[in-house]
């Protein structure tokens, strides 16, 4: 295990991490970006996108990758199976309700995995038993035993979760945990499903479980905290201090409602404060920024500027007092180094005269290694951007490459756009698209230039969808800044996001709409049951 510095006192950090590793106090990082994270409205990912994220999670050192909910849809099943056949180092996990069909489907999806885990769950709180399941305590208990036994027949690695555990009667919760372990569960997960728990209260629950469940020593104790009160990270860390050894989390904290515990926050908290958290994880923190950007680009969920660890302002200092301190000693106002999460400063200044080698080297410094074809496409777009912008910032390159990664194969491709608008004329857009390799052109009018552009797309590829989100923000400052446009489309309960960046806001808008439309096409015809979150 790596013993990287865990604080600005680098010697102390190394000793603390080494001690933690020697004592077996290692935190298992269970990432559920591809399952719980994807359940955010508009966060849906295609199978190729899920594979990209899974590859990066494995390279980061994530212990367990929850790849999806195989029974939910054919798409989810295919994604879990593809990831299971690809990932070698991390455990690949599939979620299943306490139902034989769910568990069998998960086992089938996980069959190619070198290391697999079935994660089965059931609601245990009075609210869930009465209103969601219409079952009494004995019936729920019977399902716990049956589901874990079934899962264990497929794999030795079984995780059982008590959904809404933080609002479950203690005696009943302890009884279910004991039975799950007796039936073969090797990980017991205690979710704060609705983000209701308070940190010390949640820590007390973990301590009670450790003292009251006689066979708890035969399983790893895990926690899965939601962020409805903004306490997901605090609850997870207090649970670890109370004896939990697995944290379930997501990149950028994405997830249902207010989201999940953020992987980057718990990992960097442990790394930065070994005096309070003398534990270690396997995570290569220098890939955190790359993971954050990839997930943001694929989902279209922009990271808020003041987001801890990965926000644009996380290492920015505007106050004169702060700047003075930073110039004298960075530790005056930074408790971690930008390099620790993969933010690097480069002497390579990119412009229209930069060649492929310099471009490739710059991308590598930013955490990107593209294949030959993707590199050529990205380089061509960089050259086009360099002709429009005098100065190319790192943020410009990140936006450009993220879009290249998120776009992938497309049925519909942008070719060209001409828009006429002004105070005295009706907005008109002339659009050319390549649809299945055939170029088609059409013109349309609208209430404004964006509306006209979207109407032109609809004229070329007729469809009827809702547009619940249209969002623009600048990548950098200046009038020549690239605009990042996010478009959300909704059709028959299916929601997708598309994102694009360009110095021309209308071009970015068209590309973002087309990206979302392509994602929607991949989802048509798929039907899924309600995906319950643990």
3D architecture notes:
This protein is an alpha/beta fold. It has three domains: 12-299, Aldolase class I (TIM Barrel), CATH 3.20.20; 344-406; 409-523, Alpha-isopropylmalate synthase LeuA, regulatory domain (Double Stranded RNA Binding Domain, 2-Layer Sandwich). Helix content is 40%, strand content 19%. It has 17 helices and 14 strands. The strands form three sheets. Strands 1-2-3-4-5-6-7-8 form an eight-stranded parallel β-barrel, surrounded by seven helices. Strands 9-10-11 form a three-stranded antiparallel sheet. Strand 9 (412-422) and strand 10 form a beta hairpin. Helix 2 (47-60) runs parallel beside helix 3 and helix 3 (74-84) crosses helix 4. It is globular and about 75 Å long. The two termini are 30 Å apart. 46% of the residues are buried.
List the helices and strands and how they pair.
Elements lengths: L9 H13 L5 E4 L15 H14 L3 E5 L5 H11 L6 E7 L2 H11 L5 E8 L2 H8 L3 H16 L5 E6 L6 H13 L4 E6 L6 H14 L7 E6 L6 H10 L4 E4 L13 H10 L15 H12 L20 H9 L27 H10 L6 H17 L5 H14 L4 E11 L2 E11 L2 E8 L3 H12 L5 E9 L8 E9 L2 E9 L2 H19 L11
Parallel strand pairs: 1-2, 1-8, 2-3, 3-4, 4-5, 5-6, 6-7, 7-8
Antiparallel strand pairs: 9-10, 10-11, 12-13, 13-14
* CATH third-level topology of the largest domain: TIM Barrel
Q: In angstroms, what separates the terminal alpha carbons?
A: 30 Å
Oligomeric state of this protein? single chain
Q: Could you name the CATH homologous superfamily of the largest domain?
A: Aldolase class I
Largest sheet geometry: 8 strands, parallel, barrel
Strand content: 15-25%
Strand order within the widest beta sheet: 1-2-3-4-5-6-7-8
User: What share of residues is helical?
Assistant: 25-40%
Mean pLDDT: 87
Shape verdict: globular
Count of distinct strands: 14
């Amino acid at each position: 295990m790596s013993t990287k510095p865990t604080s600005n006192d680098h010697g102390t950090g190394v000793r603390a991490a080494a001690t933690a590793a020697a004592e077996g106090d290692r935190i298992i990082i269970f990432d559920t970006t591809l399952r719980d994270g994807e359940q955010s409205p508009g966060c849906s990912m295609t199978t190729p996108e899920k594979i990209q994220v899974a590859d990066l999670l494995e390279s980061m050192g994530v212990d367990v990758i929850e790849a999806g909910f195989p029974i939910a849809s054919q798409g989810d099943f295919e994604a879990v199976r593809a990831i299971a056949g690809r990932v070698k180092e991390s455990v690949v996990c599939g979620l299943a309700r306490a139902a034989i069909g769910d568990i069998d489907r998960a086992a089938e999806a996980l069959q190619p995995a070198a290391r697999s885990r079935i994660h089965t769950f059931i609601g245990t709180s009075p609210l869930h038993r009465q209103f969601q399941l219409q079952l009494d305590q004995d019936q729920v208990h019977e399902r716990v035993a049956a589901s874990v036994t079934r899962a264990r027949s497929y794999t030795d690695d079984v995780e059982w979760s008590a959904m809404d555990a933080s609002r479950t009667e203690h005696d009943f919760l302890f009884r279910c945990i004991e039975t799950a372990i007796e039936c073969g569960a090797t990980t017991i997960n205690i979710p704060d499903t609705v983000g209701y728990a308070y940190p010390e209260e949640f820590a007390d629950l973990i301590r009670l479980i450790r003292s009251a469940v006689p066979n708890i020593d035969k399983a790893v104790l895990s926690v899965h905290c939601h962020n409805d009160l903004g306490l997901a990270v605090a609850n997870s860390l207090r649970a670890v201090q109370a004896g939990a050894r697995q944290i379930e989390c997501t990149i950028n904290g994405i997830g249902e409602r207010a989201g999940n515990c953020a992987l980057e926050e718990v990992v960097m908290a442990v790394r930065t404060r070994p005096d309070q958290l003398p534990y270690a994880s396997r995570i290569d923190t220098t890939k955190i920024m790359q993971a954050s950007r990839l997930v943001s680009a694929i989902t279209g969920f922009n990271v808020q500027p003041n987001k801890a660890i990965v926000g644009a302002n996380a290492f920015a200092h505007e106050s004169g007092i702060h700047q003075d301190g930073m110039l004298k000693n960075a530790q005056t106002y930074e408790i971690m180094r930008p390099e620790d999460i993969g933010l690097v400063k480069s002497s390579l200044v990119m412009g229209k005269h930069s060649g492929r080698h310099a471009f490739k080297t710059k991308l590598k410094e930013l955490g990107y290694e593209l294949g030959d074809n993707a590199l050529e496409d990205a380089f061509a777009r960089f050259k086009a951007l360099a002709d429009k912008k005098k100065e190319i910032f790192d943020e410009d390159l990140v936006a450009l490459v993220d879009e290249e990664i998120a776009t992938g194969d497309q049925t519909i491709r942008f070719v060209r756009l001409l828009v006429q608008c002004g105070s005295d004329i009706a907005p008109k857009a002339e659009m050319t698209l390549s649809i299945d390799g055939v170029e088609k052109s059409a013109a349309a009018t609208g209430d404004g230039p964006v509306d006209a552009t979207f109407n032109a797309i609809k004229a070329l590829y007729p469809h009827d969808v809702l547009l619940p989100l249209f969002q623009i923000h600048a990548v950098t400052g200046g009038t020549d800044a690239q605009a990042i446009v996010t478009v959300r489309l909704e059709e028959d309960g299916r929601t997708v996001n598309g994102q694009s960046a360009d110095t021309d806001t209308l071009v970015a808008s068209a590309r973002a709409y087309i990206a979302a439309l392509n994602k929607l096409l991949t989802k048509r015809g798929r039907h899924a049951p309600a995906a319950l979150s643990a």
